């Protein structure tokens, strides 16, 4: 895998990987969060506000697969009293969270008009919910 990354090859076929690459060997991906646990002390998070943009959101393949790459780093974060493993990807324009996890954590979901998110492998995903403030 590291050799393919060094040669800038797609992880799944022998073609060069570039933004918008459409791999002939399509894969189905799943993101799993491990180690969600209760914590006694509370974190004072800063408020985040997002400015409007006319560009289509983009999500890198590393963010989608949960793998790390040259533009990614994995951190432990606290949301409320729960510890989470978070993948920070500078190749993505937005941050995403699995709908099931948001519900499980009791995060306030807001309905928004559907947004199409373009993934680095060419796929497009639909997003229709948003979380305004996470602490």
Automatic annotation (TrEMBL):
Region (Disordered): 39-58
InterPro entries given in the database record: Peptidase_aspartic_dom_sf
Origin superkingdom: Eukaryota
Any matching Pfam family: Asp_protease_2
The name this protein goes by in its record: Gag-asp_proteas domain-containing protein
Lineage, top ranks: Eukaryota, Viridiplantae, Streptophyta, Embryophyta, Tracheophyta
